[in-house]
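Researcher: Please generate the 3D structure of the following complex. Treat every line as part of one assembly.
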Amino acid sequence: MPGKKQSSKDSVMKDIPQSTPAPRYSGIATFMRMPLVQDPSGIDIALIGVPYDGAVEGRPGARHGPREIRNMSSMIRTIHHSTRINPYKLCNIADMGDVPFTNVYRAEEVHNDIMNYYQKVHEAGVVPLSAGGDHSISLPILRVLGKETPAGLIHIDAHTDTNDTEMGFKFSHGTSFRRAVEEGTLDANRTVQIGIRGAQNSEESWDFSKESGMRVIFMEEFTALGVNGVIDQVRLVVGDGPTYISFDIDGLDPAFAPGTGTPEIGGMTTVEAQTLLRGLRGLNLIGADVVEVAPPFDPSGNTALVAATIMFEILCLLAESIALQKK
Amino acid sequence: MPGKKQSSKDSVMKDIPQSTPAPRYSGIATFMRMPLVQDPSGIDIALIGVPYDGAVEGRPGARHGPREIRNMSSMIRTIHHSTRINPYKLCNIADMGDVPFTNVYRAEEVHNDIMNYYQKVHEAGVVPLSAGGDHSISLPILRVLGKETPAGLIHIDAHTDTNDTEMGFKFSHGTSFRRAVEEGTLDANRTVQIGIRGAQNSEESWDFSKESGMRVIFMEEFTALGVNGVIDQVRLVVGDGPTYISFDIDGLDPAFAPGTGTPEIGGMTTVEAQTLLRGLRGLNLIGADVVEVAPPFDPSGNTALVAATIMFEILCLLAESIALQKK
Amino acid sequence: MPGKKQSSKDSVMKDIPQSTPAPRYSGIATFMRMPLVQDPSGIDIALIGVPYDGAVEGRPGARHGPREIRNMSSMIRTIHHSTRINPYKLCNIADMGDVPFTNVYRAEEVHNDIMNYYQKVHEAGVVPLSAGGDHSISLPILRVLGKETPAGLIHIDAHTDTNDTEMGFKFSHGTSFRRAVEEGTLDANRTVQIGIRGAQNSEESWDFSKESGMRVIFMEEFTALGVNGVIDQVRLVVGDGPTYISFDIDGLDPAFAPGTGTPEIGGMTTVEAQTLLRGLRGLNLIGADVVEVAPPFDPSGNTALVAATIMFEILCLLAESIALQKK
Amino acid sequence: MPGKKQSSKDSVMKDIPQSTPAPRYSGIATFMRMPLVQDPSGIDIALIGVPYDGAVEGRPGARHGPREIRNMSSMIRTIHHSTRINPYKLCNIADMGDVPFTNVYRAEEVHNDIMNYYQKVHEAGVVPLSAGGDHSISLPILRVLGKETPAGLIHIDAHTDTNDTEMGFKFSHGTSFRRAVEEGTLDANRTVQIGIRGAQNSEESWDFSKESGMRVIFMEEFTALGVNGVIDQVRLVVGDGPTYISFDIDGLDPAFAPGTGTPEIGGMTTVEAQTLLRGLRGLNLIGADVVEVAPPFDPSGNTALVAATIMFEILCLLAESIALQKK
Amino acid sequence: MPGKKQSSKDSVMKDIPQSTPAPRYSGIATFMRMPLVQDPSGIDIALIGVPYDGAVEGRPGARHGPREIRNMSSMIRTIHHSTRINPYKLCNIADMGDVPFTNVYRAEEVHNDIMNYYQKVHEAGVVPLSAGGDHSISLPILRVLGKETPAGLIHIDAHTDTNDTEMGFKFSHGTSFRRAVEEGTLDANRTVQIGIRGAQNSEESWDFSKESGMRVIFMEEFTALGVNGVIDQVRLVVGDGPTYISFDIDGLDPAFAPGTGTPEIGGMTTVEAQTLLRGLRGLNLIGADVVEVAPPFDPSGNTALVAATIMFEILCLLAESIALQKK
Amino acid sequence: MPGKKQSSKDSVMKDIPQSTPAPRYSGIATFMRMPLVQDPSGIDIALIGVPYDGAVEGRPGARHGPREIRNMSSMIRTIHHSTRINPYKLCNIADMGDVPFTNVYRAEEVHNDIMNYYQKVHEAGVVPLSAGGDHSISLPILRVLGKETPAGLIHIDAHTDTNDTEMGFKFSHGTSFRRAVEEGTLDANRTVQIGIRGAQNSEESWDFSKESGMRVIFMEEFTALGVNGVIDQVRLVVGDGPTYISFDIDGLDPAFAPGTGTPEIGGMTTVEAQTLLRGLRGLNLIGADVVEVAPPFDPSGNTALVAATIMFEILCLLAESIALQKK
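Model: Done. Output below.
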C-alpha cells in the first residue's frame, strides 16, 4: 500500500467493529462501516454527512439522507467486482460524522457552517466524499475546493441547478452551480451536466448553462451517444484539471431511485450510471457528493442502497486517483 | 337556517360537484368537498390550508398536510352522528385554498404572510378553521385573532410549545405559545394544555407554561381525571371569553396518528379526543387549527383521515357557536 | 400565441393560484394546476378525470387514479425540455373535473354517462385528454370521437384489450377495442398496439387484433425494432387521419409503474415511452387518455407521477397539433 | 368429543399439512390451516370466503380480503387462552374455499350466487363462518339462514347499513340490513347494532334502525355502558332465538384495523371487541361473518390478522354452541 | 450528582456529537445518542444491542431491531416528563454496541456468545439494558445475572415463553423462561408475567408457568385489575429481591407496535405500559431488555420509536435504582 | 396432447377451482392455481415451495417467498404470448405444497429434509420447479438431480455463491455451488453464471468459479455481449447434457425486484431476463428454481409477481423439453 500517512485514527478505530466478520445488520451504522473519527489528520478520504434540506422548494426529507445511506452502506463490501479496486487498501478512509449546524433555519448560515467545516477538512489534505442533504450543499463545498483553482465538474442530475433564483431565493438547491460560477469557484468551461430532463417554467437555467460554457447532455443526447460516447465527452470537457463529481440521485430514473424530492421520469438506469462512473478512472478528482436522497419517499429503502453503492463507486475512483498522486 | 348572510359564493359553488351524490373518490379535493372561493365575503367559516413546515426542528413533511387532509376529507359526510349538527345548514362554509407565501425560506416572512392573510379573513368577519402545516402557524393566526382581546386557548398536544428557543430560534414550532403570550395575543390564564408528555432536554417549557398561568394537564392527569374531568377543567379555565382551539395531531397516540413529525407514545385515543371536543359546545370560539400532519410518515393515509375528522368535529363546534351568536 | 379563442374561463381562473410562483405542494390539486371549469366554451384542451374501475376483472383501484394523478401533476412544470413546447402558450387548457356518474354499479350506464359528457365537450370543439379509470372508459370516448369518422388509434398497453368477453362480460376493460371496432368507431386498419405481452388464457384477443387489421407490436418486436423503428410503424399505420392515443400505464414495466391492476413484467421503460411519444409530432390527434393507474398498489406514489408526466408529453402533442390546425 | 358426525373430509384432509408441527409461514394458506373441501357433508362449521366488493360506494379492495385473511390466519393457533375452547376438538371444521360467481359485474347476480351457495351449505346442516368481501354479502346469507325464521343479529360496525339506497342503488353495502328486514329474513326487534358512529348525509339510516325496532348502541353509549353493559344489552335483545353475528372490521378504530374501505375514527379497541364477543357464549348462533377487510389499504397486513383473530373468537363461540346443541 | 464513578469514557465521548444541540436527524445513530464505548469500566448502565433472530419459529426480522431502535432513539430527550428523572445526571450511560457473534447459524453458540459478553459487562459492575433481537436472548443474559442469586422477573409479553420446545427445539424464543427456571437462574416464585393472551396449540406453557409458581396475569385479568392493581401484584411477587425486566414488544397491542414477529391482538396500550413501568420505582433492578422489534414489519417505523421510549422509561428506573444504591 | 401419463391427480383437482373462469383474486392460492397434490405419481412437473431462509447471512424473509409467489401467481395465465406454449397442455402440472422440515434451526437438517423430499419426487419421474427460500436450497436439490450425472447449470444471480464459507459456515446461501462442485453433483465445466456483480470482501468466490471451470459472465460482459450473445455463450457451455436452471431474483436489478435480501444495483431488466430464458428452448432441462424472494422487503408485492412470471417462463421451457422427450 503506497504512501499511507501516519494515522491518529487507529486508536479510535477499535471502537467500531471491523466490517467483514460481523453480520451486516449488526453494529453502529457508519458509512461503509468505517471508523468514526473527528480529527481529519491521517485520513485520505473523509466520508461526511450533510443532513440539510432547508433549501428545497418542493418535497423535503433529504435531511434524513445521511442516516439511511449509512444504514444501507453496511451492505457494501470492499472489493469492486470489475475494477478489483479495494479502496481501503489504497487509502485511509473514515466516517467523519455529520457537519454540525448553528442555525438550521437559515440556508446561508448552514452554508457557512458547511464551508467552515470543509475548510478544516481540506486544510488537513483530506478529500471529501459527502452524502446530502439537498443539492445546495455543493455550493459551500465548492467554495472550499474551488477556492484556489475553479473546479471542473461532472454533474449527474435531472436538473441543471443553474436557476438564478427559485421562489425568489438565490441559494436554493436549484441555483447552486450558477452561484458557484458567479462566485468563481466553478469553471463552467470544464463543467458537464448529464441526464438533464423534465419540464421547467422558464428556459433560463438551460440557457445559463449553455451560455456560461457548460456542456449539457440532455437525456435524449445521453441515449443517442450511449454511455461510452458520454464518457468521451466528459473527458474532453474536464481534461486533467481538478474535478469534482456531484451526483444528484434524481439523475437516475425514479424506478431506480424513487426516494427523492423532485423525481423526473425518463432517467438513467443504474447500469448506465455505474458504467459512466467507471469510465472516469484516471481523472484528477478533488472530491464528490451524492445528494437528494429523501428516505420518507422511499418505502423499500433501496434508494439509500443505490446512493451507498454510488458512493462506493466514487470512493474507488477517489482512492485510485489519490494513490496515483501519492506515487 | 337562521341568519345566513347573503353570499357571493354561490356563483363559484357551481363549479364544484355537490358533495352527496358524487362518489367520494371523485372530484377535486377541497376541504369537506366545499366550494373553493377566494373572496371571504359571505362566508361564515373559512377552511384554510397553511402548507408550511420550515419551523420544524425534526422531521419535516407537514407542508404536505393540507393536500392530504383535503383528500381524505372527502370521506367525511355532513351530519354529526351524536350531536346531529349539520354545520353546512348552520353556516356558509367554504375552502379558501392555501395561504400564499412570498418567501418560504424565512419563517418570519412566512409568518407575516399568514398574518396578513388572516387579517383579511378576520376583517371580513369570517372564522378560520385551518389545517397546518407545523405548529408555528398558530402564532401569526393568534396575532390576528388575539389582537384586540388576548385569546383563550384550548391546546391539545404532546408538547407545550412554550420553549424560549429551539436550536437557537425563537419562532420554531416549539415556541409558538410562549411567543404569543409575550406578544400579548394569548391569555395564559385562559389557556389549557392537554395531553402533554414525552421527555424534554430542559424543564423550561413546562416551567414557563406553569409560571405564566397556563393550566397544564399532563397525560397522567388526563388519565386520572378522565375525559369528563378534563372537560370540566377546560371550561373552568377558558370561561366564556373568546377562545381558540389548537389541535396538534401528536396529542393523539401515534397508534392513532403515526403521520407526524414528533410522535410521542402514550397519548390520547381518538375516542378520548372526540369526547373531549364534544364537551366544548357552547363556548365562545373564535377559530381553530389542526396541525402537524406529516403525510410522508403516514403509509396508510389514516392520519390525514383523523385530521379531517377532527376538523369536522371542530367545524360543528364553530358552526353552532356562530349560529348561536347570530340569533 | 396564435388563434386563442375568447375565453369565458378567465373569470374562473382567478380562483386558482397561478402555477409557477406557489410551491408545488400548495394549493388545490387540479390537473397541471390548471383552472377548474365546468363550461367547455373557450377551452382548446380539456383535462378530464374518469374515476371508474367497475369494469375491471382483477385488482380494483383505478377509480382513485384521477385524484392522485392530479396531486402529482403539480410536480410538472410548463416548458418541455426537448421540444421546448409550452402547451399553455399554444392553447387554452383547463381541468374540467371528473365525469359525473348516475349509477356506478352498472358499467353500461357509466359508459353512457361518459359518452354523454364527452359529447358535450366534443360539440364545444374541445379536445379531451383524460385520466382513468380503467380501460373501459376509452370505449364511450371513442363512441363520441369516432362517431363521424372511425378513429385511428395508437394504443400502448401490455394487453390488446380485444377480448370478446371477460368473465362473461362484453364491456370489461379487456374488451374495449373489439367493441369499438364492432361499433364502427375505431378503424382497425389504422390501429397500432404497442408493448403487448403477458400470458393469456386464449389466443382469441391476439387473433382478433390481427384478423381485424390491427398492427400488433409485441414487446419482443418493440425491442427488435427499437423505438425509432416503432415510430416509423406507427406513422405508417395511422397516417394523417384523425387519431386517438390510449396509454395504458401497464404498457410500462411495473418497475416504472407498479401501481396498476394488471401489471405484466417485461415492459417499456419511461425513456422508451417518452421517446415514442415525442416521435408522434405532427399527427392529426383528436384526443387521448392515460388509464389504469391504481394508487392503492403504488406505495411511493410514483406511478401517478409517471402518469402525470405522460399526460404532459401528450398534452404537448395535442397543443402543437391544435395550434398547427388553427394557423 | 361429543357427537361428531362421520366425516368424508378425512380423505381430503391428508392433502394439507397438519397445522401444528409445520412452521406457520409454510404450506398452502387455507383458513386456520384447515383442510380444503368442496363437499359440506360431514362438516359442522364451514369457513367460506366471499371475495366480492362490487357493492361498495367508496374505496374498493375487500375482494382481496379472503386471501389475506387466510394468509394471516396461519398465525392463529388452536386453544383459546381464556375460555380454553379448542373448536377443532368440538366440531369438524373445514375451509370450503370461495363462493364462485357467474357475473361479478352485477351485484344482484353475485348475491344470487351467494344465496345459492349458502343454500347448499345450509341444507347440509353446516354452520357458515364467512370472510368478506363487502357488507352486501350478509344480505344473501341471511336470505338463507333467516328464511324459515327471521334471524336475530349482533351487528358490530361503524355504520347501521340501513340506508334505503346508496348512490341510487338498493343493494349496496350500506343497505343490507334494511333490505333484510324488508325481505323478512332479519328480525329487527332481535337486532342490536354496536359501535355506530361517523357523519352521515341524512339521518334516514339511523331513523330506520330505530323505527324498525333495532337497538342501536352508538359509540358514545358503548363507552358509557362499558363492554359488560353492552353485553347485557345484547343478551336482552337477541334472547335465545337463532342469532347471526356480523362483524364489520370498521367497527374497530382504524388504529386497530386501518385496512378497510370506510374507516371511521373513534371506534372500538380489539380488547373491547374481544371482550364483547366472549360475552356471547351460550347464545343460539346460526352463523357469522367478518367483512370489509381491504388489504390494499393495509400496509402492515395487521388488519387481516385482526380479522383472522376475530374469526377465531367467533369460531370458538360457534363450536361451543354447536357442541351444546349436539349433546 | 451523587457517587458517579471515575470514568474512562470521557475520552471516547468526544467522538460523538452531544445530544441536545444537534438536530435529532443528524449524527451517528447510537442508543439515545450516547457515546459508543467498548470498555465497560466507568459505566453504570450499558445500552447493548443483540441483533439475533435465529431462534424464531415464525416471522424473522428482529435481528434488525437494534439498528432501528438506535435510529429512532434519537427522538428521545433527557428529562422524564412525569418523574423528572434525568438518567444521564444520575449515572454514566453508554452504548456498548452490539454483541459480536461467532456463529450466527447455531442458536446455542449465539447464546454462549451473549453469555460471555454479558459476563464481562456484569463483572465490571455494569447494569445492562438490552435491545433484541428475539426473546431467546434473555436466557443467556439471565445465565449471567441470575447466576449467584436466581433473578426475579417482571415479564411483559403476549406469550409466557415457557414452552418445553418449539418445533422440537429447546432454545427457541418461546422457551426462554422455562429453561431459565430449569437452569436455576430464574426464580419462578418471584416471576410475574403480564399481558398474556392469544391461542396456543397446547396448554403446556400456561401450565408450566402456573405450576412452577409464576404469577400469570392474562390480559383479561389485566383489564379487570387495572394498571394500578397490576402494579400491586407485581410488587407483591418480586418484593425487594434482585429483579430483571423483560419487555417483549408484542405485549403491546399491534395497533401500537405492529412491527413484531408474533403479533397478538387485544394487548396493552402504551399508556398502560408506561403507567405500569412508572409503578416499578424503587425496586431492586439488575437489568432489563426490550425484545422482538422486527422492523421489516413496521412500515411507519413507529414500533422502533415505541421500543426506544420503553427503553427510556426503563432507563429512568434503572438509573434511579442505581443512584439509590450508591447513596 | 402427446404422451400424458395416467393421472391420479384428477380426483384431487376437483377440490381447486379451475383457473380460467374464476376471478384471479378468488380461491386458494396455489402456484399458478394448479391443483394441490401430495402424491407425485402422474405428474410431469411439480411446483414446490421451499420456505427456508436460515442459511442467510444478511436480511431474512425468503421463508415467506413461496406464499407470496403463490399468491401473485394467480395473475399468470396459461398461453405464453411469444412462444404460444401452453405448458398445461403439454404436461401434467401440480402444486405439491411445501417441503416439510423436521428442524428449522439447523441448516444441515433442513438440507437433508429437502434432499429426501426431492429424492421421492425424482424417483417418481417428476421434474421439479421450486420456489425458495434462500439459495442454499439448490444444494440439496442438486444432490438429487446431479447424483447420477453431475448437472450442468444456468445460474442467474448477482453473486457466484461459490464462497468456501460465509461467516464461518459451509452451507450458507453463498456457498451452494462450490459445495455442489465439491460434492460432485454439479459440473463446473457445464456451468455458466450470469449477471454477477457487487463488491465482495475477498476475491475467493470469483476465483473459485473461474478456476473450477465455470463460465462467469459479469454484468459488464452481459451488457457488452447483449442478451443474444449471452444466449450463445450459455448454449456453448451447457450443450445438450442435463441442465438445471437456478434463478436468484437478485440477478435482476432491485428496481425490478426490490424484495430480496441482498440486492445489488446495476442488474438485469426483466426484458433481458425473459429474453435470455426464451433463448434456452430445446435444452435438456432437468429442473429449476427461483429463489431469494423476500416479501418483507417488497412493499408493492411486485417482486413476487416477477418471480411468478419467471417461474412461468421456465415452466414453458420445462414443459416443452419434457414433451419433446416424450415424443
